[in-house]
TrEMBL record, chains A, B:
Modulates transcription in response to changes in cellular NADH/NAD(+) redox state. Pfam families: CoA_binding, Put_DNA-bind_N. Residues 77-178 form the CoA-binding domain. It is found in: Cytoplasm. SMART domains: CoA_binding. The keyword Cytoplasm applies. The lineage of its organism: Bacteria, Thermotogati, Deinococcota, Deinococci, Deinococcales. It comes from Deinococcus aerophilus. This is Redox-sensing transcriptional repressor Rex.
Length: 237, 237
């Protein structure tokens, strides 16, 4: 599995979203050709992406939407509960905390953290906003898997480091700066992007969410409307 | 140009983001191999994606970061001003309005719209929140190109339709429902996803931003950390 490109994982997420749409439209079966058209890639690409993870569907018979969806949910690790803390509870952090859909995939918000005296102690989504200083103990005591970063750009590096030091396994960065891809940079002491957990070393994964990418795609398609696949899915964020 | 896959446009956006990072690191030259590694695709894919739009760089010499960046900015249509209205000025809409970076690419927020009596009339980012009923006149009078949708899911379809009826050329949908890909569905009278503008018909482009995609990628990489390319860029939103 060590040669699966990042783009293939993004496409798997797109295929899953398409399967959810098909299920919503009560369409029971699909094919690599159908998925390819909706995803704006080739049918060969779809089959190749899926082949990394096993053989789904029956040759010449296509795929059962419900079964392929279940398989992709399993492959993507969405069949387990993920405990999430949000660091930064300003407009963006509150928008994320209140954004519907995360719970569909067992992303559970268990803690909210900030440094602002106006926010610490406040209730958001039945959770009390805690001070960032409590992060490390909280992550340990609550088996936190992921941290979502929604702090101002100038705070992102330190907040990400605090999440890494607290021991989260992954960071989803909504702040408008690039962090990672494995560990916040500029901390030579952290070096390899790994940290000791018991006896083994493991990477802290960082995914950056780019709000501007959608704006850029939109600008392109407004100027080139004929290139917009009318059957295409939403482009994944 | 009628066969450029949607995925290629998303990759162009990724390449541009990588070039911005390289420029930030004062790296003056790159190559299809370097871009490919950072984007998690093949060098052939990079060359193929770029070849849709012309010949950049010199054979065997790679690319000048600044020049390729400028070309991609032009190709993506980011070298012009885009007048944007935001519909929905709750937490998410305000987070978008205040998210840094949009102005770097001449996305100019010229109007904010909502239906809530608590919001209409309020000042956000030096703009007065207007009632959605004023949208049509405002779009016409202010040469609005794009509408960003940040309304609750149950309002998204109607709000998108209001933007289309007002005459915007594209919609970036942040609401947690899929709209489009060309026009809000469920309006048979709108049918083809086109509307009359003067004598010609043109499509209204819709891009959907999927907050959950990043969460799903993160879940996968936490379970498969060795697959995470340590040199990879942030995955585009």
């Amino acid at each position: 599995m060590s040669e699966i490109p990042t783009a293939a994982i993004s496409r798997l997420v797109t295929y899953l979203r398409i399967l959810e749409q098909l299920e919503g439209q009560e369409i029971a079966r699909t094919s690599s050709t159908d998925l390819a058209e909706r995803a704006g890639v080739s049918a060969f690409q779809v089959r190749k992406d899926l082949a990394y993870f096993g053989r789904f569907g029956t040759r010449g018979m296509g795929y059962t939407v419900a079964l392929l969806k279940r398989e992709l949910v399993r492959v993507l690790g969405l069949n387990q509960t993920w405990n999430v803390v949000i660091v930064g509870v300003g407009r963006l952090g509150q928008a994320i905390a209140n954004y519907p859909g995360a719970s569909d995939y067992q992303f559970q918000y268990v803690g909210l953290f900030d440094v602002s005296p106006e926010l610490v102690g406040r209730q958001v989504r039945q959770l009390t906003v805690r001070h960032i200083d409590e992060l490390k103990d909280f992550v340990r005591d609550n088996k936190v898997d992921m941290g979502f970063l929604a702090v101002p750009p100038e705070r992102a590096q330190d907040a990400a480091q605090a999440l890494v030091d607290a021991g989260v396994r992954g960071i989803l960065n909504f702040a408008p700066v690039v962090i990672g891809p494995r560990l916040p940079e500029g901390r030579p002491s952290e070096g390899s992007g790994q940290q000791e957990i018991g006896d083994e070393w493991r990477a802290v994964i960082v995914e950056n969410v780019d709000f501007l990418a959608g704006m850029k795609r939109l600008a392109f398609y407004i100027r080139n409307p004929l290139l917009k696949d009318p059957t295409g899915p939403e482009t994944p964020a």
